Each structure stands twice: as structure tokens, then as C-alpha cells.
Amino acid sequence: MKYLFDQIINRKHSDSIRWDKYGPEVIPLWVADMDFQSPECVVRALRQRIDHGVYGYTYASQSLKESIQAYIKRQYNWDIETSWIHFLPSLVTGLHLSVRMLTDVGDHVLIPGPAYHHFRDAVVGAGRDYSIYNLPLQEGRSTFSISQLESLVKPNTRLLMLCNPHNPGGTVFTKVELASLSQFAKQHQLIICSDEIHADLILDEGLQHIPIGSIGGVEERSFSLMSLNKTFNFPGLGLAWVICPNPQLSQQLLKDLHTLIPSPNLLSYVATQAAIEHGQAWHQVLIQYLRANRDCVNQRIQSISGLSMNHLQATYLAWIDASQLHWDNPFEQFLKAGVALSPGSQFGNAQFVRLNFGTQRALLEKALDRIEVACNS
Asked: Residue 321 — φ and ψ, nearest 5°?
């Protein structure tokens, strides 16, 4: 079956956060959704559910839980119980709940940096003390420094937040790296909250995503936050899930669910199950397309004087270093040139920008042309 990832789809005036924020002449490669239609199996399943005509209160079926259980085994070789799966309206909800429900005022949290801004937002919004552990480069990829973590941990540290694969660095952490992090957390009696939303967007062949809970010795003190929203491009529908082997920990984490935190959208259950059961052929072609886009971005960025980027193992989000241009605000300069990127300040470094290459190749190349002109001028 042919999947038309090169087909331009007009998203303007569709109430798209990404496409409607800036002017019509700006190419928006910022917020993390893709410009590709979701697989036909998802569209078909949604149509069938909509045609039913009644949209009452809906729960996650045992069938969906069993589909996720089988998917986790197939994708990551991790044996889980369906009782470990708990649903949330979004992964961001899980990040904020982890801080508010699992720590108290006066507790300390370790968060990664540079990283997705909701890690910082979660601790700041909850009024928690926190420290940022940076991810130093080793052989072109970001990884942990246990010695740095040891220097940051405090007697009142309760929670360590992880982003795997990392956003915006694109690192897929190895089993050895995760085992060392798990040992550190166990030694200091820390809970690990792991954002794994990009687990199925690994671009390097031969790499394998490893969920934190599959690492021996830390499963009772950790949980994974997962979703297929990014992979199959239906983030507007919502739905994430927590995989938590420890029932006491999940009960504490989710005690505001169905009160302050609403249930997920009923259509999100339908989309997720359809993607799991019938979307793998589409997914394989998507990865090939994104891999070629990644290589295109890397080649162009490395050829532009003043810009650089490290090899991206996963995600469709390139983390670009513009510090050699000596601009006060690279984001503003590229916006003036007609390309909207995510400002690096959002992630913790204003001299970087993040570029979303989950778009059609022709549009991506046009944006890269504008970026090159901006840098050369």
C-alpha cells in the first residue's frame, strides 16, 4: 500500500495551533505535531465510531488494555500486566501529576535540561525546589553524568524526571545508561517518572527503546508515561497511559483522576486501538520518511556557516545550535526570514532552536533555504 507522505495538506484555517499562530507567509516548524494524515485505519475507526451517533461517557475497554499489553511486549519485549495500565487525557497531565502527587512542599526534584518545558513548568507550578541535571555530550550524543547527579541530589530529593528518548536532544538511552540511572535512584530512594512519548519514533536502525520499568531493581519505584499521539499524529485527540507496576504508587499518583483530571476523550481510545492493531505498516513507512528528513536537515544545517547539530537518534525534532552566529535571539531572526521554529529558551538554552521536520520534504527544503539565507545575510 502506498502512503502519500509527500502530499501537501493545507492545514491553514483548521484551528491548528501550529499553522494559525503566524502569518500566512511563515513556514511553521515549531510545535510537535506532524503534517501527515493519520493512517487510514485510524480514520476509518473514528468514522465508524462517529456514525454510531451516541457519544456518552466511555471507559477504556479491557480489549484496549490487552492491545497495549501485547504492543508493549512486541515493541519493547517488556512483559506487563493490564492492571499496571492507567489512562490520562495527556502525557503532560502525567508530568504535572507526578510532581504534585508524589512530592510535598519542601521536597526537591531532579529534572533534565535542556528539555521539554513542561518538566520545569511542573516543578515551578507546584512550588517545588528543583535542580537541573544536564546531559553532557559523549561521542555526539547526550547522556547522563552520575557524578553530576550525585552532586545535585539532596536529603529531601524525592523524584527524578526522565525524558527517554530525549526531547530535544534525540538520544535513545542504552540499557547500561538506564541501569546506572536506576541504581542511582535506588541508592537515594528516588521515584523515577519517565516521559516515553517518543518511544516509537526511533530513527537509527538497530536501536531499541528501553522502558524504565523494564530495568531490574527499579520497577517498584518507577513508572512510564506513554502515548501514541505523536507517532500516529493525533495529539488533538489526547490520551496517554501510565505503566506502573506498584499499585500504591499508581494510587497516589492518580488520586485526582476523574475529579480535577477528566477522563480521556472517547475517540482517543478508538484511535489508539486502531493504530496499535492496524497501523504498523504505515508506521514503518513513516520512520523511513522521517529518517530521510532527518538526514536532509543534518546535511543542510552542517553546510550552513554558524549552525550545527548533533546526530539525532530519535524524534522528528532537530536541536540546532546557532550560538556561532552571535545573535541575541536566533528564534526572532529565523522568524523574520519566514520560518517559525521553537525558541531554545523554552528548553533552557536561548542560543538553540528546535526544528520540527515532521512535514513534507518540499516544504522542509523551502524552510531550510530560508534559514540559509538568514544566516548568510
From this structure: -90, 115
pLDDT tens per residue across span 28-86: 999 999 999 999 999 999 999 999 999 999 999 999 999 999 999 999 999 999 999 99
Taking CA atoms, 367 is separated from 73, 124, 153, 313, in Å, by 39, 34, 42, 22
The Cα 32–Cα 60 span in angstroms is: 26
Residues 6+ apart with CB under 8 A from 366: 27
Backbone angles phi, psi at 256, to 5 degrees: -95, 5
Q: Is 275 exposed, middle or buried (0-12, 13-18, 19+ CB in 10 A)?
A: buried
CB atoms within 10 A of CB 61: 11
Q: Which helix (H) or strand (E) holds 242?
A: strand 240-243
Question: If you write DSSP's letter for every residue of 85-108 in order, what string do you get?
Answer: EEEES-HHHHHHHHHHHH--TT-E
Domains and CATH numbers, the chain: 17-31+280-376 (3.90.1150.10), 55-277 (3.40.640.10)
What secondary structure letter does DSSP report for 346? G
User: CB-based contacts of 159: which residues, under 8 Å, 6+ apart?
Assistant: 98, 99, 102, 103, 107, 109, 110, 190, 191, 192, 193
Q: Nearest Cα to 312, choosing from 135, 114, 115, 165? A: 165
pLDDT in tens, 174-185: 999 999 999 999
* Contact predicate 207/175, CB 8 Å: no
- Tell me which residue of 159, 139, 164, 138 sits closest to 149, measured CA to CA: 159
Q: Please state the separation of Cα 327 from the chain's center in Å.
A: 28
Per DSSP bridges, beta strands 108-113 and 157-163 are: parallel
Task: List helix spans (H) across the chain.
Answer: 17-20, 40-52, 62-76, 91-102, 117-126, 146-152, 175-187, 247-253, 266-278, 280-303, 330-336, 361-376
Which pTM does this prediction carry?
A: 0.96
